[in-house]
Structure formats: structure tokens, C-alpha cells
Amino acid sequence: MRRRFRACTLVPSSPRPPRPAMATPGGLIRAARRGTLAQNMVMDRIFSGIQPTGTPHLGNYLGAIQNWVNLQEEYSSVLYSIMDMHSLTMPKEPAVLRQNILDTTAAVLACGIDPKKCFLFRQSLVPEHAELAWILGCITNVPRLLRLPQWKMKRASQSNGGTVGLLTYPVLQAADILLYKSTHVPVGEDQVLHLELAQDIAQHFNKKYGEFFPVPKAILSTTKKIKSLRDPTVKMSKSDPQKLATVNIVDSPDEIVLKFRKAVTDFTSEVTYDPASRPGVSNLVSIHAAVSGLSTEEVLHQSVGLDTAHYKMVVAEAVIQKFAPIRNEIKKLQEDKSHLIKVLEAGAEKAKELATPIYQEIRRLVGFQ
Ligand SMILES: Nc1ncnc2c1ncn2[C@@H]1O[C@H](COP(=O)(O)OC(=O)[C@@H](N)Cc2c[nH]c3ccccc23)[C@@H](O)[C@H]1O
């Protein structure tokens, strides 16, 4: 089933994002859609990324990766990156980071990302990301970065008051996107403010150096924010200290059942969808609809007569069914580390080929050449 996308920041809701013109150093890129070679058609470019935190959770999958899989079918130029440089902003042991990179790669491949249809690569293998981040950092104001909620939240967990890397993380994110002149960025809702910063930076650069970057738009899935199972007022997150809050896509059936059984709802037993007044049960309905491919109305219709305790088990079962084949595939892929490394290296070579002429032009524009 094709999912519907919502192009955000803020483009009106539409089944498919619009296709803005994309200027490149060599002129307009031709051939937008796979298999279409009509001259002078302009091309969209999809870019997104995920931090290597090991295996993704339900929020990563439903908010982003599921969209990525659909978009690689729809668009001819698609890049997905394992954001290892971003990962350093929350300190990790080198061995853990190394393993997480491979596990995240295995997971996205198992979810259906196909390196023949997109470039899947490790961010740090293309050093131009960091070089462009420096240039963009020089046209970004510190107060703008200080206002971003992720900085405020995450710096509280760092004993040193927050590192430069953590503060400038969104500038690196803007560089990730703009280095490829990307036009659309599929992300979950928590990344929208970062996308808005990338838009502002692109516009600022264009104003200073002449029209160069397309202004990238976010693409949100219908399940743009999956909430914690322990506190449905906050997003589901890998770093949540409450182990029952987050469902990982490799969790065993028993773990999934336990997490849904303990999911926080309220004292009304009926299953309804009202995110403002009933965030807990509404989160379950959203998850159920997303993993089963049904609409919210269909899910509610099927749940008539069930109380929330029973309903939690229905949702757990739907999640188990959805992720069983993916879980098996992840295990298989994890056994072949050299294959995973090769995929990331081959993807990086292709990404670099795209990035090099764009970055050369940026160097010329700012006066390095
Ligand atoms: N509870 C949730 N509900 C719905 N969606 C969610 C949930 N949790 C996470 N997501 C989405 O998963 C993707 C990867 O998350 P990360 O935290 O690794 O995502 C991050 O930390 C980014 N900064 C990585 C990044 C670096 N450079 C980029 C350039 C473009 C796009 C993304 C990036 C994201 O789309 C995120 O929105």
C-alpha cells in the first residue's frame, strides 16, 4: 500500500511533494522520475539520516524509515545517511559507536532500504559535510541555536554545560542536507525545527552569495510523532531511561507484549481517538493504524467492544507481526559485517561524487578559490 506524504514547512498537505527547480553548477538536472528522461525536467532530491543508536525504535520506523522505503521507489535521487558525526554529540565508547553503526545499517536494510535505489552511506566518510558545516556556521547566529529545544534538553544531561558540538549540531544537519542540494527531507516531527533552521541558512546563503541552494522541505508521515508508552505526552526516544517506554524493532514478542501491557493509558476503558484528552490510548491507535496499514477509523471500528486492556494486546500482536520478518532479516545481516561495511563505503563513494562539484562551487562562491 502506498502511504500518503505530507510536505511540511510548510507546504500545504498534498499526496506528493511539489517538484521545485534545482539549479546545479552545471545547470538544471534532468530526468526527475525514475525511467523518465525528458530533457529540461527538473529533479527533486531526497535526503535523510538517522543517528546510529543501534537498532531503531518504533518511532524511527513509523516516523521516518517507512517513508524512506516508499520514497526510494518514487524518486530517482535519494540519499540516506548513518549520522555517525551527529552521534558524537552524546559521548559513546568507540567500540559501541562502531557496533551501533553496523547494527543501524543492518536495521535500515532489513526495513527495506535498497542500496540499488538510493545511496546509503556513513556520514563521516564524506568529510565535505563537516567542511560545509563550518562555512554555514559562519553565517548562523548563536542565539538562534541557543533557542532550539534539543540544545536546552540535552545540555542538561552534560556535566560541562553543553559542548560546542551539541550546540552546532543543527548546523551540521543543515550541511548534510544542503551539500547535495536536497529538496525534500523525510523526518519525524521532532526534526521540523532543525529543518526550519536549514531553510533559513539556505536562504541566508542565497542572499549573501547569490541564488544557489534550493530551500529544502520536510516530508512528514501520517504518524509523525510516536509517543513514549510510559508518558504519552513525550516522544518515544532511544535515550528514555524508562526501559518500558520504547519499543525497539528487534524486541522479542515477550518484550513487546510486556511493554504494551504496561503502556500508560487512562481510566476510561473504551478505545477512542482523541490525542488531546486521551494521549495514551490515542498513541496506541496511531501505532495500530500505522503497523497494520489501516486508517484510524478502520482501527476504531475493529476495536468496538474491546476494553483498553484487551486492546493493548491487539496492538502488541500487530506490532509483533509487523516486525517478525524484519527482526529475522536484521539477525541475518548482522552476521555479515563486511557486507555492511561495503554497502556504506560504496554509498559514500557515490555520495561524494554528487557532493564534490557542489562543494567546489560553494568554495568558489565564498572566496576560497
Ligand atoms: N518518536 C518518534 N516519532 C516519530 N518519528 C521519530 C521519533 N523519534 C525519532 N523519529 C524520527 O526518526 C528519524 C531518526 O531519528 P534520529 O533521532 O536519529 O534523527 C536525528 O537525530 C537527526 N538529527 C538525524 C539527522 C542528521 N542530519 C540529518 C539531515 C536530515 C535529516 C535527518 C538528519 C528522524 O527523522 C526522527 O524525526
Architecture overview:
The protein is mostly helical and 369 residues long. 49% of the residues lie in helices and 8% in strands. The strands form 3 sheets. Strands 1-8-7 form a 3-stranded mixed beta sheet. The protein has a 3-stranded parallel beta sheet with strand order 4-5-6. Strands 2-3 form a two-stranded antiparallel sheet. Helix 7 (164-178) crosses helix 8 and helix 10 crosses helix 11 (296-302). The chain starts with 5 loop residues before the first strand and ends with a helix. It binds tryptophanyl-5'AMP (TYM). Residues 47-51, 59-60, 63-64, 83, 86, 173, 176-177, 185, 187-188, 190-191, 224-226, 235-237 line the site of tryptophanyl-5'AMP.
General shape: globular
Portion of residues within helices: 40-55%
Q: pLDDT average, as an integer?
A: 89
Encode the helix/strand succession as letters. Answer: EEEEHEHHEHHHHEHEHHHHH
Largest beta sheet: what is the strand line-up? 1-8-7
Function: Catalyzes the attachment of tryptophan to tRNA(Trp) in a two-step reaction: tryptophan is first activated by ATP to form Trp-AMP and then transferred to the acceptor end of tRNA(Trp).
Keywords: Aminoacyl-tRNA synthetase, ATP-binding, Ligase, Nucleotide-binding, Protein biosynthesis
Main location: mitochondrion
Subcellular location: Mitochondrion matrix
